[in-house]
């Protein structure tokens, strides 16, 4: 298997980014045999349809040039008229033939490579003109395989051509036929020969295209190290992203700890969970969780609560439920109203205050 400079085997399929970059560089699975066979087959088919009209146009043009044009007194208007007449009789069919071939060439190119507009393949590269690189391409394994394929293709086409020529031309000579009939017959035989050779080339082109697809896929493979490096470049270094997330968590915790002194009560587990609640009847419809945490974070919350003389109430089920079900900065759901109202009522009694709204309802 191909290996990179680090010695890793290219066992991984190309990533979408690698495939896109390769297309922009002009590296696609492309078979010239497919293009040649398509142009020949479609060209012969088009020539079969427009050939009679094209032949008549050429015939009439030659007659006019060699006979009528020699004796006519031509002026500017007559020349323009004759030029237009020649284009209608002969040039129009040539335009049709060339147009069909152009459409086929563009279509086959798009089918193989897709619609890619890039100028990168035209940029000069030292590797393309370096003699050593050229020798490696010629005498390397790929160059040898290409040479063998060319020999095999030439042998197949030559064999088919010889069989057809010997069977249809040499064996079919009839000297008793009229010269024009013999010429017409042999021209038709040569046309059939060309079509059969183009069909043979089309069969070869199918195998060549499959080989080019396989070779391109193989060339685009990546090592595991290359896949990791590409992921780092596109998604970012995982270690750096983890560090950023850690800093973000620390900043969020720092902001959260700044809200703890504003809390009315801290409900604890008592050791593993701590949830700080704040309630302002004028601005809040329900108590809000201003801070929560587990283990070390819970210990920090309780330490700050002690420093600011905030009441801590031990309620294991309530502490766990609030820590699990309510996000920081969000008001508590209605399911917790009664339990939290009891806690706040106890806190306000300790402080000599009355729970806001206690005369009407709890929280």
* Helix residue percentage: 55-70%
Weakly predicted, low-confidence segments:
1-7, 358-363
Beta-strand content bin: 5-15%
Enumerate the strands of the largest sheet in spatial order, edge to edge or round the barrel: 3-2-1-4
Work out the helix count. 12
Map the helices and strands.
Layout lengths: L15 H9 L7 H40 L4 H38 L12 H4 L1 H9 L1 H30 L8 H41 L4 H12 L2 H22 L5 E4 L4 E6 L9 E7 L1 H12 L3 E4 L1 H10 L11 H14 L13
Parallel strand pairs: 1-4
Antiparallel strand pairs: 1-2, 2-3
What does this structure look like?
- By secondary structure, the chain is mostly helical.
- It has twelve helices and four strands.
- It has a four-stranded mixed beta sheet with strand order 3-2-1-4, with helices on both faces.
- The two termini are 72 Å apart.
In short:
The chain has helices at 16-24, 32-71, 76-113, 126-129, 131-139, 141-170, 179-219, 224-235, 238-259, 296-307, 316-325, 337-350, and strands spanning 265-268, 273-278, 288-294, 311-314.
